[in-house]
Specification:
The complex is a heterodimer of chains A (273) and B (435).
Chain A lengths: L8 H13 L3 E7 L5 H13 L4 E5 L10 H12 L4 H11 L6 E4 L2 H7 L1 H11 L3 E3 L9 H10 L2 E3 L1 E2 L5 H10 L4 E4 L15 H10 L5 E4 L5 H8 L4 E4 L1 H8 L4 H20 L3
Parallel strand pairs in A: 1-2, 1-9, 2-3, 3-4, 4-5, 6-7, 7-8, 8-9
Chain B lengths: L29 E2 L2 E5 L5 H15 L2 H15 L5 E3 L1 H7 L4 E6 L9 H15 L3 E6 L3 H13 L2 E7 H6 L1 H9 L3 E5 L6 H15 L3 E3 L10 H9 L1 H14 L5 E5 L4 H7 L9 E9 L10 H4 L1 E5 L1 E6 L24 H8 L3 E7 H15 L5 H13 L12 E6 L7 H7 L18
Parallel strand pairs in B: 4-14, 5-6, 5-8, 6-7, 9-10, 9-14, 10-13
Antiparallel strand pairs in B: 1-2, 2-12, 3-4, 11-12
Helix pairs in contact in B: 2-4, 4-5, 4-9, 5-7, 9-11, 10-11, 14-15
Classes of the chains: A alpha/beta (273), B alpha/beta (435).
Chain lengths: 273, 435
Amino acid sequence: MTGTDVVSSTGALLDALAERENRAALVGYLPVGYPSVPASVDAVRTMVDAGVDVVELGMPYSDPVMDGPVIQRAVEAALARGTRVRDTLLAVEQVAGRGAPILVMTYWNLVLRYGVEAYARDLAAAGGAGLITPDLIPDEAAEWIAASDRHGLDRVFLVAPSSTPERLALTAASSRGFVYAASTMGVTGERSTVGSRAQQLVSDTRAAGARHVCVGLGVSRPEQAAEVGAYADGVIVGSALVRALVDAPDERAGLAALTAVTQSLAAGVRSAR
Amino acid sequence: MSPSSGGRPVPSDAHGPATTGPLSTHQGPYFGQFGGRFVPEALIAALDELDTAYHKAQADPAFGAALAKLHRTYTGRPSPLTEVERFARHVGGGARVFLKREDLNHTGSHKINNVLGQALLVKRMGKTRVIAETGAGQHGVATATAAALMDLECTVYMGEEDTRRQALNVARMRLLGAEVVPVRQGSRTLKDAINEALRDWVTNVETTHYLLGTVTGPHPFPEMVRDFHKIIGEEARAQLFDEIGRLPDAVAACVGGGSNAMGIFNAFLDEPSVRLFGFEAGGHGISSGEHAARFSGGEPGVLQGARSYLLQDDDGQTRPSHSVSAGLDYPSVGPEHAWLHDIGRAEYRPVDDDQAMEAFRLLCRTEGIIPAIESAHALAGALQLGPELGQWGVEEPVLLVNLSGRGDKDVATAGAWFGLLDEEPTVLADQGEQL
């Protein structure tokens, strides 16, 4: 398979949502292994049933430099409970096939250690759609680009408000599925306002050649989802969903809170246009 | 060519181009298969800006003159070269041993060389704030010093445990006007302080420079920090030539991130007759798993911006390191060291806590010099080399050892280690100079 032959199921879903429902997708992040591996699988299924269109499944890592305190604490707890990289692949297998593409969000050393080709093969076999790589830029990604082409996987790289036009073009050309636009300069976490530069960044990234651009960082409330959903192909929410689990007194209450938060965000996305 | 390379080619192949030309002037982003820029895209513009500013400054005589003047009038350079005859008798093999006295620099270690260079760059880039990581405080103190001198806002990230154990260094930094932020995330160690500094940088990159303290991290840090420290080897080479009229047979340095070692190695990289030895922290011994010996107990991987040797588990999660010296207590190592290791130009060996502390005491007793515990690893390394010197075929072997820092900060640790204190020490082991 060559890069140009690969059809992204994520991209196709984003197109379908835009054409049939005139709306952006809700992309929901949860880490594998929090509060336990089986419970995280339940949580992902719950958020998909409650309205998440695309899953960003986090692989816990010891040094998550792009994550704020809420996600840091959850992945620390997941690692302390012994969550392994192979658990992520098992979780992908268990949550795939429900209509929502599963993108694994991973810091690069975990894939490097597993073997880039082996990880791509096993992720594809598990039914995963691809990877979101917060600390891998296209310049360093030759091996991943080749492996993702061979296995028909999405590769979601990031752009930031600081990205130059040249880098937007490079990132747009290197990505498949969508480009992840960081709404603001910073790390993951809930913020009172979504960065004012996000809309401009989406339009610049499209102008640089990206077919789909989703916006993340700092989106936590329905009205923010509506605001971003008006101009982006997808709205990425992480910390607010993780917080629903973290703040709950037990797993059942966590799933109930997760359902409520997801439904309100899904409604926000649907009210955007 | 990537558009992000600041005008210089960046190979898209992560394994980099074949290496040709002199080793001493090798430029990033890649050192063989090591180095690179494994960071969030949000930082790339700042790294490009830094790369461009650095290479412009390098070509500008005014920059070199300003830094040279600071070193002459503020740092106290050139640092002396001291022959240590009584210590050399313990090395044996008829060796002569010379110490490069970075311990006598202002702020007490080699760290100031890099800090002043980067602080001058910050002024040129028009940024107003610097952030830094520190373990037990040496780099933090040096950064706070330069920030005070050059009127920069300064925030230092430090693991919470270290802020407690190194309360005096925290006070030093605060006296100098810096904000010290205790880091409570992860393992609350140096690597977590670096993570927190990176998060701050991603958020505030428009006004803020990350004044990284060693030859690790994303390009251009490994190359730039090496260049700011290569004055160590250049001075030592000239001073040694004045003393004995020849090159040393071996150069020894301790290696945490590896900046003092890179600094003294550089002037000798292209002299094949000079053997280069880097001594890593063996902690409680390699077999104990509690060490910071990346070349003995690590494998290639990516951490905090660069590909290098790394202490990691089967999944690629970072494994905690251990050393009696916090300055060597880091799970990865500069990518240029990884490259020199793989091409066989430098040899890296572990020195455990006990050996380092014995060498620490020996230098105190034989020469009246209290070294940093980090530097004591290099001294212990020189002692280990003693029995091998006979096989080198040199009549009077000359060892050059980088005494990268002084041990004032380690007195409490050493006092506890050797039972010299009359009461329960308030400062425990596992501290010292830091990256």
